[in-house]
Amino acid sequence: MQKKGLELSINFIVMLILAIVIFSFGLVFVAKILSETDRQIGLLPEAEELALDACLNEQNLVCLPNNKKELEPGKSHVFGLAVQNYAGESKEFSVLVELSLAIDNEGNEITPIDAAEWTFQSHEPFMLANNEQMKLTIPFTIPIHAEQGEYAFNVNVCFKDDTHPDDAEKCPDAAYPDLYDTTHKIRIMVI
Question: In angstroms, what CA-CA distances link 175 with 40, 93, 120, 184?
């Protein structure tokens, strides 16, 4: 009798350990997927993807084709950004997003604004081989307390290139001190 009771306990412990291991692998898998969501182009509407593809076909270095949106507080939108490396060699890039303008409907400046409440201010750096391209997403969520008005954000793609002069104002990270292409804008009208 005692042998069967011991056998049942050992089987239960083995099954419990297996369940914990499988659950742990599931958590690691979900965490890995969530950490890459800012790079998943699948979050973009088809029209946004088509606009990015058209822009890339024109051989632009950086594409942000649909950069204007009207949104209500509490609503979200994902903007598509594409980068093509025509630097002649593999380069590592970084994307920085910062608030450049916030005015209400009467033209008065809105302050203070914490851009981190709206979007990621910097994205994880990424490597592109020469002539390679990457599509990224820039997600925005309008804070509930946002005032009605126009909000403009600068989008700078930065990299390191010894042949370009550093642009510390637009690319403050010493690892990526050079502006790739020009500053692009995202404009959001809060209604």
Answer: 24, 10, 19, 21
Strand boundaries in 14-111, DSSP class E = 62-63, 68-71, 76-84, 91-104
Asked if residues 75 and 142 have their Cβ atoms less than 8 Å apart, the reply is yes
Q: What is the mean pLDDT of residues 106-119?
A: 88
State how far the Cα of 10 lies from the Cα of 12, in Å rounded to an integer: 5
SS3 92: strand
The pLDDT value given to residue 2: 56
Distance CA 91, CA 157 (A): 12
Q: Is the pTM of this model over 0.90?
A: no
Q: Cα separations (Å) of 102 from 32, 112, 152, 156, 167? A: 35, 9, 6, 18, 24
* Cβ–Cβ under 8 Å, residues 63 and 55: yes
- 187 three-class SS: strand
